[in-house]
Design a protein that fits this description.
The protein is α/β, with parallel strands linked by helices. The chain has helices spanning 29-41, 75-78, 87-99, 111-123, 138-153, 170-175, 201-204, 208-222, 249-259, 311-314, 330-345, 348-369, 397-409, 434-449, and strands spanning 54-58, 61-64, 69-72, 130-135, 157-161, 193-196, 228-233, 263-267, 291-294, 305-310, 373-379, 382-387, 412-413, 415-417, 423-426. It has two domains: 29-85 and 348-449, Alpha-Beta Complex (Aspartate Aminotransferase, domain 1), CATH 3.90.1150.10; 88-345, Type I PLP-dependent aspartate aminotransferase-like (Major domain) (Aspartate Aminotransferase, domain 2), CATH 3.40.640.10. α9 (249-259) links the parallel β7 and β8. The protein binds ligand PLZ.
Length: 451
């Protein structure tokens, strides 16, 4: 049983017409057919927010099975940063797939894995000696960063923050803050995970030093510095609401970690690879993490993740203590090498900043006209608006959901986030053009005005 797809432009990549085009309502009949089959065949636990069946994507659009062309302001949750079906990624995948698809790096190693490790060691913040290990998903990278920190420090406790998101596996559910939908009913969770208060300037009004002192006091009183293996934090929180900590917060936490022999892990799964207008968001705050986790944008859409950090920490495990059948799959590594080449040589950091300037000025103009936008924040192509009731300042999740739904119905993919579900986040591919980005934001503004 398969549906034949005969839309005009089934091949993706930047050659796709860069336009918003609605030829049916969303979802159209062909998408609906796939969605009906999904409902019957796929676990109800796996949801979806954009009700279309994708058949091609590239530049700044996603094309569906009915021939609708949607403006992509989500990049599949910050993954297709270099652009969907980027030609160099496609070529690298095809070439590597024709050579060999798998040996298992733990059985017989291969050069592309080593080259990705070398690139990560070179590109991540700090000029100390670094090593890397490759995995399949962000959650798996986070799990391994914690394993590495524990064996290095011979301590067990791990500190995560309010609003954190680190994944859906058992240990990473424990690290993730939000109960619904990520944790409710799925316990018991991994032990020795403790939560500290974050710096969330829009809500707590604290400066970075005070917010850090508050967090450190909780850690010292409730856990004890000498028990802490690692502190893990997203430099800009993703799922939790695109929360940018106050200046000085992250450096103070890093300094406390150094003084107490605690491994500082920056989870850059969402913020990494040019997304925030720097290769890694840690650079924006002047911090050098001991370990850094990456995934998402690293390989142009193929599943790949990594832990990179100080060589002496990365080497703490006995040989054979880290690994996995597929970690650093050769096709994913070939894709990563092509994507990393684009990040370094195609001006993508500059592009992320230019996109950030457009996002910020457009969102601030919307905020000036509408007090329901309580806060506009983010960096580069990772920017967001937080919606509140102007009278009370309370989160307005209903408005947020209604605006996002209206944008999707008009052919613009936007994603929501936030502990309170009241943030619309913008994560366009860096391959989107200014005109398409502005058209997408026009649709957002109109949807807001209509609600
Ligand atoms: N760390 C900072 O953002 C993944 C999750 C989407 P995986 N974020 C998107 C969802 O609802 O499942 C993420 C992240 C940060 C870790 C992860 C986990 O990465 O590749 O999804 O395992």
């Amino acid at each position: 049983m398969s549906i034949d797809i005969d839309i005009a432009a089934p091949v993706g990549g930047p050659a796709l017409p860069q336009e918003r085009r609605l030829v049916t309502s969303i979802p159209g009949p062909r998408s609906q057919e796939v969605l009906d089959r999904k409902a019957a065949a796929v676990s109800a636990g796996i949801g979806h927010t954009v009700p279309v069946a994708a058949v091609a994507a590239g530049g700044g659009v996603v094309v569906d099975a009915d021939g609708n062309s949607l403006i992509d302001l989500g990049s599949g949750i910050a993954v297709t940063t270099v652009g969907n079906a980027h030609p160099a990624v496609v070529a690298a995948v095809q070439e590597q797939a024709a050579r060999f698809t798998h040996t298992c790096f733990m059985i017989s190693p291969y050069e592309p894995y080593v080259a990705v490790a070398e690139a990560l060691n070179r590109l991540t913040p700090g000029d100390h000696m670094k090593k890397s290990a490759l995995f399949n998903s962000g959650a798996e990278a986070v799990e391994n960063a914690v394993k590495i920190a524990r064996i290095h420090t011979k301590r067990q406790a791990v500190i995560a923050f309010d609003h954190a998101y680190h994944g859906r596996t058992n240990l990473t559910m424990a690290l993730t803050a939000k109960a619904m939908p990520y944790k409710s009913g799925f316990g018991p969770f991994a032990g020795e995970v403790y939560r500290a208060p974050l710096s969330y300037p829009f809500h707590d009004g604290l400066n970075g030093a005070d917010a850090a002192a508050r967090a450190i006091s909780v850690i010292e009183k409730q856990v004890g510095a000498g028990n802490v293996a690692a502190v893990i934090i997203e430099p800009i929180q993703g799922e939790g609401g695109f929360i940018v900590p106050a200046d000085g917060f992250l450096p103070a936490i890093v300094e406390w970690c150094r003084a107490n022999g605690v491994v500082f892990i920056a989870d850059e799964v969402q913020t990494g690879f040019a997304r925030t207008g720097a290769m890694f968001a840690s650079e924006l705050f002047g911090i050098v993490p001991d370990l850094i986790t990456t995934a998402k944008g690293i390989a142009g859409g193929l599943p790949l993740a990594a832990v990179t950090g100080r060589a002496e920490i990365m080497d703490a495990s006995h040989t054979g203590g880290l690994g996995g059948t597929y970690g650093g799959n050769p096709i994913a590594c070939a894709a990563a090498l092509a994507a990393i080449d684009a990040f370094e040589n195609d001006g993508l950091i500059e592009r992320a900043n230019a996109i950030g300037d457009i996002l910020r000025s457009r969102l601030e103009a919307m905020q000036a006209a509408d007090p329901r936008i309580g806060d506009v924040r983010g960096r580069g192509a990772m920017s967001a608006a937080e919606f509140v009731d102007p009278a009370t300042g309370e989160p307005d999740a209903a408005l947020t959901a209604a605006v996002a739904k209206a944008c999707i119905a008009e052919g613009v993919i936007v994603l929501t986030c936030g502990t309170y579900g009241n943030v619309i986040r913008f994560l366009p591919p860096l391959s989107i053009g200014d005109d398409l980005l502005n058209e997408g934001l026009d649709v957002v503004a109109a949807a807001l005005a209509a609600h």
